[in-house]
Amino acid sequence: MTSKEKKCDIGLIGLAVMGENLVLNMENHGFRVAVSNRTTSKVDDFMNARAKGKNIVGCHSIEELISNLEWPRKVFLLVKAGAAVDALIDAIIPHLEPGDIIIDGGNSHFPDTIRRTAYVESKGLLYVGAGVSGGEEGALKGPSIMPGGSAAAWLHVKEIFQSVSAKVDDGSPCCEWIGNDGAGHFVKMVHNGIEYGDMQMICEAYALMRNVLGMEPGEISTVFGEWNEGELDSYLIEITRDILAKTDDETGKPMVDVIMDKAGQKGTGRWTSLAALDLGVPAQTIAEAVFARALSAIKDERLVASKVLAGPGAKFTGDKEAFLEQLRQALFASKICSYAQGYQLMRAAASEYNWDFNYGEIALMWRGGCIIRAQFLGNIKEAYDNNPVLQNLLLDSYFKDAIEKSQLAWRKVIATAVEHGVPVPAFSSALAYYDGYRSAVLPANLLQAQRDYFGAHTYERLDKPAGEYFHTNWTGTGGDTASTTYNV
């Protein structure tokens, strides 16, 4: 680079699929980008192919990359979450000056981002943990970006991030500042947990069409195409339609029929479930989606069990079209509950970690570019615009009415699944969440009595002020000493 050439607006380390496409997206929006990769041959390959002739500078070392950056230097990392991020941060820091910015755009676990923000700031630098969703296509054409970390960094990265992000119909970018330290990666984690739930529920609808109604993939594809024209309009429904219409070139069979039924996972759904457990938030639909993948992974055991464990022999004799409409309603109602759980989890985290989330803006960020983009996210934004302190999506009039219209069909679908031996853990757990949430009284009074009986864990009484705890000598032989009252 000659002295007359403009320095780069941003540098990116990590030229895998997401990295390459995000660099091309940035360059396409007028930004000059420096790139490097641990395996330097990937830099040369990229520069000689997709980056050829573009406003991109290939670099063979961290020092070279940083020397090509305009101050404050902005270094975007897209490497595997975990130790690799920490190692790269330590390798970069000696080359930076106060005010420079390190950005982690990978799927890092939010506690790591909290820790890294404090560490990088202690060196006089700024840190951004940015959740990026949209896959390969989103990275190239416009992802949803969820940044958090050092608030002072936002001014310097805002233009780049919002320029390259997806836009909704009114031109608003699917990118806004989420909050301090790990807030961005937390919201991205919840996004992925909701994604797990959405995918599992769609698979359950597919399984019911296949195993109860006896429909073939092409016919099911048509149904998903029709559903995508209404309130279920979403990216995941759209790609499911396309997947089920695809034929395998080798066998001529439907593509879905040659794919092994063993689901993989990279851990973000598990992280969401663990966060829900840690914060005491009921997010059972997301957890069931994680467990469903785990169950699918033990294929060899399931093959053995299928030969020795019997199920019901029921045959469907109802109205096919009526059942498909019930199934559509069940999917929509379950989806609402899954999102309600995700938003409850974000509310609990905001309180725990002192984050000031704008829940309507988060819904807006998910409207475009990301994997869970869907029409009804607009309704979520409206719900929080109308009531920024809304406790639960189910209490908003739109979602309350939608559930009321769908719940009879929802219950019939689950009953049909049980009668035919088709597992629907996401549908079932979503309904259990709804029924539990709407219950003024749950059997936890008996559970608390059990805890007090065997462990003197105490209980509160309905006829006494909240916060007063009591212990009963249930057997007449125990003492009056009670255990300390606490909740994990």
Describe this structure in words.
With 488 residues, this protein is of the alpha/beta class. It contains 19 helices and eight strands. β4, α4 and β5 (101-104) form a beta-alpha-beta unit. The radius of gyration is 26 Å and the shape is globular.
Provide the fold topology:
Blueprint: E1 10-13, H1 17-28, E2 33-36, H2 40-48, E3 56-58, H3 62-67, E4 74-77, H4 83-92, E5 101-104, H5 110-122, E6 126-133, H6 135-141, E7 144-149, H7 154-164, E8 179-180, H8 183-211, H9 217-227, H10 235-245, H11 268-279, H12 284-297, H13 299-308, H14 320-353, H15 359-365, H16 377-386, H17 397-420, H18 425-437, H19 444-455
Helix pairs in contact: 1-6, 8-11, 8-12, 8-14, 9-10, 11-12, 12-18, 14-17, 14-18, 15-16
